From TrEMBL, chains A, B:
CDD domains in alphabetical order: ASKHA_ATPase_ROK_BsXylR-like (cd24076)
Family note: Belongs to the ROK (NagC/XylR) family.
Domain spans labelled HTH marR-type: 9-50
UniProt source species: Nonomuraea insulae
Pfam families, sorted: MarR_2, ROK
InterPro entries: ATPase_NBD, HTH_MarR-typ, ROK, WH-like_DNA-bd_sf, WH_DNA-bd_sf
Protein name, per record: ROK family protein
Domain of life from the UniProt record: Bacteria
Length: 370, 370
């Protein structure tokens, strides 16, 4: 009961901003004595802070306002991607306090070697966070693959199958799919729209569909595998065993060809290189087909292009919009708006940290040991 | 508060079967006096009934058990489809009490004429239900199109656009998409599995994805439009304005060709007619492609083929399973099981009635005027 009341008080402050104790009591239906006792626990844990006198909403009397504190409690976001490792620390107000990215070649890699790299990154960033007075109380890891409990079931580009990720941090810890966490990153740190399909362009292509602020995960947590939606049923063989999947036409490898990086591709596109323009055109057409199927099945509020599709948005927007307009027009009047991600390459690692903040707000007693 | 307590008591009986009043008090945390008073209201409304003495679970004392009553309260399911109208009456225990189907030619039809046909069917079946002592207290209508509030936004095969359905019944009334209600029909009256993608083969092809017993509807309630998933991007033009949609290859018109009915097609298939076999083969391949995309995006527990795909299952199963196996194998180990619907052609109209029963159980005070 006390745990539930702590959660109710914290959720009220989180949702509706600073409150006096009296206003909290009025809003939550708890007694003032109970609220005072809960608030002092939250103060002591560094979860909330007292700020200057505000006018209490309820009866116009001024009082000391209690608000979320960004000074103490923090969460760690981690990401293993094909060509980099990333980490970030986010405080309880969802302010991003630290970010670190390390280029790496993780393709078909030894899990032990990569995990040791992550461990080093964790040590470094946690020490920095502590130096800033932050207490990191949970961590989440984004991986480009399917996840079940603490096990990465299949991350084909990493070459991982059934890899258990243990002893990475000495903290409450979760793992999730990169695209799901990137969608949550967009929700919490990007546009803050609550209904959209986030398309994560990486070496693989994933997606996370968010409806009313919640990711739809399907039955086994495997929903949103946009990269393997069939674009051309008898197209080229895909790494997944299928044929003509979206990834074959619009994955990073298809887009880059011989080029070394997305930056180089953008340079070529800016200088009007016909091969680069053609690769983007082809990718955009394939995305238009796959997103048509996705819109019919998932009915998203809008479509957000993220990951490497963000820097390529200028060149993708035309063919993608055209495809959606031509195919969806009569069924839906206007197709969902197509926009570029507001979070860029950090979406997944931010979403990872944000997912821990959300857990703390939802169950403060458990994660803070109150 | 009383309304909430009525719902708690009714949900307990609905979920866990007959209970003594004492057992209900123990289970719900309400006082025995409160439970007795709620139960007498429910008895009077005909929602529950008293049956013989049972051993009360809590202390071994025998008592009178209170269980859901199938004798009084009932719901009306209605369906407008392209070539028939249907109605059914389902009692509170979800026993199907009456079913009526009227063949009709509703293609590109006048809404007023069809709705008048539905009104006649309602009068007839309601009178029969009353003669059986049933009190119909709500109705739901399934339509083959998209629905928003009380308006059928677009039902392309009916030729309807923005048709407001009013004055159909003098009862609390909802409208929903045929495939969503058919999925719920399968959930409540069919296999009772809680996780599946129900594929509704009709003149159009819809789908309803059920995860943990709930239909996923997307942002605007338009999710599950499987019929317009792209199978061949430059394939034949579809009625929706797109090209190469599933419906072009596997909708009823594509399957039947010159034949008059699904029964006739089944006859031809049984006698080994090569054109009929080829049509099924082609539809099965297209379904395999579209369902591959659907599995990647929606991650269903299993796939249930319903509507006209149920009588054709023998001929579709091979090509569909083959397609799913070849395309999904490496990503998922085994693809979701493919099964035939347990509810047949009645799925949508049963789901419609069932949705009202679910509302009564969830909010008895409101729908019963308690």
């Amino acid at each position: 009961m006390r745990a539930r009341n702590l959660a109710v008080v914290l959720a009220t402050i989180h949702r509706s901003g600073p409150h006096t104790r009296a206003a909290l009591a009025e809003r939550t239906g708890l007694t003032k004595t109970t609220v005072s006792s809960l608030v002092s626990d939250l103060l002591e844990a560094g979860v909330v802070t007292e700020s200057g006198a505000v006018r209490g909403g309820e009866r116009g009397r001024p009082g000391v306002a209690v608000s979320l504190s960004g000074h103490r409690v923090a969460a760690l976001g981690l990401e293993i991607n094909i060509d980099y490792l990333a980490a970030c620390v986010v405080d309880l107000t969802r302010a991003v306090r630290l970010r670190r990215t390390r280029p790496a070649d993780n393709r078909n890699s030894d899990p032990a070697r990569i995990l040791s790299g992550v461990r080093n990154l964790v040590k470094e960033i946690t020490a920095e966070a502590e130096a800033d007075g932050l207490r990191v109380i949970g961590a989440a890891l984004a991986v480009p693959g399917t996840v079940e409990g603490g096990v990465v079931r299949s991350a084909p580009h990493l070459g991982w199958r059934d890899v258990r990720v243990a002893d990475l941090v000495d903290l409450p810890f979760t793992i999730d799919n990169e695209a799901n966490l990137a969608a949550l990153g967009e929700l919490w740190f990007g546009s803050r729209e609550t209904d959209f399909l986030y398309v994560s362009g990486e070496i693989g292509i994933g997606a996370g569909v968010v409806v009313e602020g919640t990711v739809f995960r399907g039955t086994f947590g495997l929903a949103g595998e946009l990269g393997h939606v069939v674009v051309v049923p008898d197209g080229p063989t895909c790494r997944c065993g299928g044929r003509g999947c979206l990834e074959v036409y619009a994955g990073q490898d298809a887009l880059l060809g011989e080029l070394a990086s997305v930056g180089e591709l953008v340079g070529r596109l800016e200088s009007g290189d016909p091969r680069a323009l053609e690769a983007c055109e082809r990718a955009g057409h394939a995305l238009g087909v796959a997103l048509t199927s996705a819109v019919h099945l998932l009915d998203p509020g809008r479509i957000v292009l993220g990951g490497i599709f963000a820097p390529l948005y200028r060149w993708l927007e035309g063919p993608v919009s055209e495809g959606l307009g031509a195919r969806l027009g009569q069924m839906r009047g206007t197709p969902p708006a197509l926009v570029v991600s507001a979070t860029g390459a950090d979406a997944a690692v931010l979403g990872a940290a944000g997912s821990i903040i959300q857990q703390i707000i939802a169950e403060p007693a458990q994660l803070l040991g109150l």
